[in-house]
Structures are given as structure tokens and as C-alpha cells.
């Protein structure tokens, strides 16, 4: 297992992270999975034994049950080298202040997560979504307070746009508050929109990148194929709608390429998709999830899979996003002045 620095911090995390949305099975999360303590313990132990050192969850996963399960497993026997990450922002009650990124909600949410996780400190505390109604000065001050109080070690964001992140980093600098060390994003071979702004920002501003749903909710696992109904027991069979698929033909072309490379290498399509992500320069860690030990074992094997340059070219060719404005203009007129962050998107197009 490889370990990478998380953004501009000295914290090293494994290239794979344990995802825990399948723990609990309450409310909307039941569609994803309903693993209990004993089942979850086996999966966490498997990941830790393989070298994974980060467990990621959120208070909204099964209305806190996912955190409770992790607390039951890790509480009282937590190893010093196993890190815990969680998130807050979404509703945890029906009251007017039970959601958002206000000082009131974030501090209450953090203290509730600490209790459920049975820990004194959260290693990475992430804003789960943008809140356009709370001033960022208030939000960043609340996160800074949690760090100074010793309840949180590092802070990050998830599902922010490029300008949201830059505004938050600007507030942190101006107000001398704790800055984001990472962002957690959706990024796959099928959904490469992050290459327009989010990955360049990470390179330029020194943010770590954690990837959620790296197999597009299972669509890139190889189980789903062109002109075939969703297999029983999968999220799509149960009506799951994330991520949105805007070009189905493109999706199946990507899947066919993954399957082809996987068959030639004697590995699953899922491993190929995960290895492509791990091999991307800006990516720190890829969050893997599932319901069975077999799924986790297969995903964990991707940490050792190194794709060839030719294999990566095939995958890039079938999934490359269009160069939209202003990037096509920059590609045409600014080739002589592109920086490292610019090349995250434009680099592959320079020789075309």
C-alpha cells in the first residue's frame, strides 16, 4: 500500500480509503447497503490488514448509524495509525438549525459525531456540501474553533465548486483561520468534470483529493453492460440515480474498454477503473465501498495494479471530456505560458 501526503499537511494517508455508506441501512441509505456491526468489522479489519489507514463516513449516513457502527468497532481499541474522517452539513433533524454550515450546526454536529464515533478527536472533518446562506467567515471560524479545541485535526470540503473553494481559502488566509487541507469529490472515467476546475485548484493550492463513488455507483465495475438490465442486488436495480448519465453510449464504450483491459491483464474492470484514478497525479486517495468481502478484496487489489502508458491512453481516449471555454481559447493562444495546474486539463491536448 502506498501512502501520500494529504495536501499541504504532514499527514500521510493510504491510496485507498474505507467507505462506509453501506453501514447501517437506515432511510435513504438502505438502498446502498445495510451492514451491521459484525459484517462491517470484518470489512474494516480486512482493509486495515491490507494497509488502509483511513476510514471515511458522514453523520448523514443512515442518520448517524454508520458513525455508531464505526464507534462500536474502533472505540476503545483504535490503533494510533488508523485515521477517522467524517462530514457534516446535511439535515440531522427537522429543526431550522439542524442543517447547514453555521457555527451553531457545525459545532453541535461535531460533538454528536465524536460521541457516536466514541473518540476524542476526528482526524479529518469535512463540509459535506456548500451552504450559500451562511457567511464563509462564520463557517471557517467554526472549523478553526474545533481545531483549536482539539476536537478536529484537519478540515476539508466536499462537493464544492471551484469558486466556492477559492473563496473559502481566501477567507482562511484573510482571517488567519485553519484552511482546507483536502476536498472530497466525485471523479471517475465516466465523470471527468473535475478536470476543468477542481483538480487544477488542488494542484495550485495544495489540496489533497479524495474520490467518492469511484466506480460510478457500480456502473464501471463490469457487472453492467450495454443493452442489459441492471443486475439484481445492485444500486441501479433498486432505482439509484447517482451519478447522472448524460451519454449512455459513451458510458458503455468506457465499460467495454475497461473490460477489455481487465481481461487482458487477468483482473476485474473495477480494478482497472480504480487503478486509473490512483495513477492520476492530483489524486491522494480513492474511497472504496461495498457490501461483501469479495468486493472489498477485489477493490483492494487495485492498489498494486500499475497500468501501462498504452492502457492509460486507451482509457483517456474513450473518456476524454471536451475542452470547453475558456480552455479551448487558452489551448489555442496560451500554450507558451501554461503552468502546472493548467496542464492538469490541457496537457493531454498539447500534441493534438
Description of the molecule:
The chain has helices at 37-50, 65-74, 103-117, 136-148, 162-175, 198-205, 248-265, 269-278, 293-300, 309-319, 327-333, 340-346; strands spanning 3-5, 12-14, 16-19, 54-56, 83-88, 122-127, 152-158, 180-186, 208-212, 285-288. It has 352 residues and is α/β, with parallel strands linked by helices. It has two domains: 3-314, TIM Barrel; 322-352, no CATH class. Strand 6, helix 4 and strand 7 form a beta-alpha-beta unit. Helix 2 packs across helix 3, helix 6 (198-205) packs antiparallel against helix 12 and helix 7 (248-265) crosses helix 8. The longest helix has 18 residues, at 248-265. The radius of gyration is 20 Å and the shape is globular. The two termini are 35 Å apart.
Which SSEs are present, and which pair or pack?
Blueprint: E1 3-5, E2 12-14, E3 16-19, H1 37-50, E4 54-56, H2 65-74, E5 83-88, H3 103-117, E6 122-127, H4 136-148, E7 152-158, H5 162-175, E8 180-186, H6 198-205, E9 208-212, H7 248-265, H8 269-278, E10 285-288, H9 293-300, H10 309-319, H11 327-333, H12 340-346
Parallel strand pairs: 3-4, 3-10, 4-5, 5-6, 6-7, 7-8, 8-9, 9-10
Antiparallel strand pairs: 1-2
Helix pairs in contact: 1-9, 2-3, 3-4, 4-5, 6-12, 7-8, 7-10
Q: What attributes characterize this protein structure?
A:
352 residues, alpha/beta, TIM Barrel, 2 domains, 8-stranded parallel beta barrel, two-stranded antiparallel sheet, 10 strands
What is the CATH superfamily of the largest domain? NADP-dependent oxidoreductase domain
Q: How would you classify the quaternary structure?
A: single chain
Which blocks of ≥5 consecutive residues have pLDDT under 50? none
Name the helicity range: 25-40%
- Output the structural class: alpha/beta
Give the helix tally: 12
- For this structure, the CATH topology of the largest domain is TIM Barrel
Measured by DSSP, the beta-strand proportion falls in: 5-15%
The number of distinct structural domains comes to 2
Q: Over all CA atoms, what is the radius of gyration?
A: 20 Å
Q: Span from first to last CA?
A: 35 Å
Spatial shape: globular
CATH architect. name of the largest domain: Alpha-Beta Barrel
Could you state the order of secondary-structure elements as H and E? Answer: EEEHEHEHEHEHEHEHHEHHHH
* Average of the residue pLDDT scores: 94
Most strands sheet: 8 strands, parallel, barrel
Briefly, what CATH class of the largest domain?
Alpha Beta
Q: How do the strands of the widest beta sheet line up side by side? A: 3-4-5-6-7-8-9-10
Amino acid at each position: 500500500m502506498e501512502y501520500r501526503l494529504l495536501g499541504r499537511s504532514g499527514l500521510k494517508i493510504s491510496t485507498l480509503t474505507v467507505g462506509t455508506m453501506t453501514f447501517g441501512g437506515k432511510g435513504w441509505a438502505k438502498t446502498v447497503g445495510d451492514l451491521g456491526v459484525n459484517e462491517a468489522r470484518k470489512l474494516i479489519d480486512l482493509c486495515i490488514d491490507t494497509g488502509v489507514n483511513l476510514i471515511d463516513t458522514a453523520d448523514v449516513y443512515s442518520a448517524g448509524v454508520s458513525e455508531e457502527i464505526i464507534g462500536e468497532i474502533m472505540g476503545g481499541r483504535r490503533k494510533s495509525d488508523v485515521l477517522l474522517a467524517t462530514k457534516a452539513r446535511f439535515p440531522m433533524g427537522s429543526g431550522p438549525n439542524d442543517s447547514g454550515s453555521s457555527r451553531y450546526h457545525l459545532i453541535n454536529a461535531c460533538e454528536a459525531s465524536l460521541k457516536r464515533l466514541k473518540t476524542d478527536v476526528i482526524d479529518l472533518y469535512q463540509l459535506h456540501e456548500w451552504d450559500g446562506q451562511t457567511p464563509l467567515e462564520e463557517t471557517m471560524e467554526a472549523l478553526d474553533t474545533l481545531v483549536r479545541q482539539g476536537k478536529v485535526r484537519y478540515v476539508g470540503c466536499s462537493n464544492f465548486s471551484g469558486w466556492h473553494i477559492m473563496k473559502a481559502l481566501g477567507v482562511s488566509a484573510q482571517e488567519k483561520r485553519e484552511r482546507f487541507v483536502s476536498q472530497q469529490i466525485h471523479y471517475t472515467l465516466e465523470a471527468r468534470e473535475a478536470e476543468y476546475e477542481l483538480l487544477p485548484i488542488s494542484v495550485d493550492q495544495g489540496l489533497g483529493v479524495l474520490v467518492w463513488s469511484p466506480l460510478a455507483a457500480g456502473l464501471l465495475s463490469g457487472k453492467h453492460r450495454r443493452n442489459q438490465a441492471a443486475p439484481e442486488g445492485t444500486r441501479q436495480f433498486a432505482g439509484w440515480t447517482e451519478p447522472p448519465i448524460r451519454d449512455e453510449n459513451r458510458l458503455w464504450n468506457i465499460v467495454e474498454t475497461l473490460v477489455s483491459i481487465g481481461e487482458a491483464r487477468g483482473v476485474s474492470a473495477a480494478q482497472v477503473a480504480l487503478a486509473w484514478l490512483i495513477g492520476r497525479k492530483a489524486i491522494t486517495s480513492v474511497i472504496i465501498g461495498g457490501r461483501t468481502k469479495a468486493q472489498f478484496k477485489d477493490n483492494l487489489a487495485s492498489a498494486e495494479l500499475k497500468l501501462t502508458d498504452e492502457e492509460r491512453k486507451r482509457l483517456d481516449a474513450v473518456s476524454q471530456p471536451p475542452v470547453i471555454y475558456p480552455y479551448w481559447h487558452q489551448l489555442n493562444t496560451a500554450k507558451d505560458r501554461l503552468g502546472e495546474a493548467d496542464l492538469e486539463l490541457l496537457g493531454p491536448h498539447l500534441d493534438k
